[in-house]
Design brief:
Blueprint: E1 10-13, H1 18-22, E2 27-28, H2 29-38, E3 48-52, H3 58-70, E4 77-78, E5 103-108, E6 113-118, H4 138-157, E7 166-177, E8 187-196, E9 203-213, E10 216-229, H5 230-254
Parallel strand pairs: 1-2, 1-3, 3-4
Antiparallel strand pairs: 5-6, 6-8, 7-10, 8-9, 9-10
Helix pairs in contact: 2-3
């Protein structure tokens, strides 16, 4: 690989984003560490900023940083592991696998507003079987908006009831895309237009999450939902499932067999 000129910053991304790095827009983290070790960056005329894009984790960034240190290029390749945003806990976004958490640096920044950074792991479930072109697929933003809503509930609005478990029923998810987004840093800002928590048995939410990359708004997702105590919704859920099974059997009997 040919290192960029001294004036050009480097965008470090996960190895999965090979379309992005292959087009010369960024550098895969494994290839970067190998290039540093070979001496490809030894002749830089001045310091180069290394930006941390998507698809990275602590281990990958540490490996890249160690390669830079071993080569004695810490003053030429400005890579700071602290630039990697800190993900929220899995429980906050209802995930078991930390690789599937999309939110980081979550904060409550106003009465009805919350902010976070997108942090996309190289092995996130949404990247396992779909990556076309240099841009991120839209479903990443849809899922990030869903997680943002869950985090707002779990880390803010539901805190008065730490010992209770809740059920979340989405009633609307509507996304408007304005432009392509790429495996670069991205910010999210959620506004809670409705957060009715007076009756814990019938809470209602209506939120809007805006995605900003490079200072430009890229997408907006509206998420509306009902939140109920789990012990109240579980019996209803099971009765509804039983009704659905019964309806399935009735539909099968009413439908004429193909070819007869």
């Amino acid at each position: 690989m040919n290192p960029p000129s001294a004036a050009a910053p480097i965008v470090l991304v996960g190895d999965r984003f090979d379309h992005f790095s292959g087009a010369g827009l960024g550098v895969g983290v494994t290839g970067f560490a190998e290039a540093v070790g070979r001496g490809d960056y030894d002749d830089l005329a001045g310091p180069v900023q290394v930006h941390l894009g998507q698809g990275l984790d602590e281990a990958a960034v540490a490996e890249a940083g160690e390669a830079v240190e071993r080569r004695g290029l810490a003053r030429q390749l400005l890579l700071d592991p602290r630039d990697l945003p800190t993900p929220v806990e899995t429980r906050a976004v209802h995930k078991h696998d930390a690789r599937n958490v999309l939110l980081a640096d979550f904060e409550h920044c106003g009465p009805y507003t919350f902010e976070a950074s997108l942090r996309l792991h190289n092995d996130n479930e949404l990247l396992q079987d779909h990556q076309a072109g240099a841009h991120l697929q839209g479903m990443v933003l849809v899922e990030a908006a869903r997680q943002m809503f869950l985090a707002v509930c779990e880390l803010a609005y539901l805190r008065p009831w730490p010992d209770r478990r809740f059920s979340f029923l989405l009633t609307q998810v509507d996304t408007k895309f304005e432009r392509l987004v790429f495996p670069l840093p991205m910010q999210m800002r959620l506004t809670a237009h409705r957060a009715d928590t007076e009756n814990v048995n019938r809470m209602q939410f209506d939120t809007e999450t805006r995605f900003v990359q490079g200072g430009r708004e890229a997408a907006t997702t509206r998420v509306a939902a009902m939140v109920r105590p789990l012990d109240r919704t579980t019996p209803v859920e099971l009765r509804t499932a039983a009704t659905a099974i019964a309806a399935l059997e009735k539909a099968k009997k009413a439908r004429p067999l193909a070819g007869r």
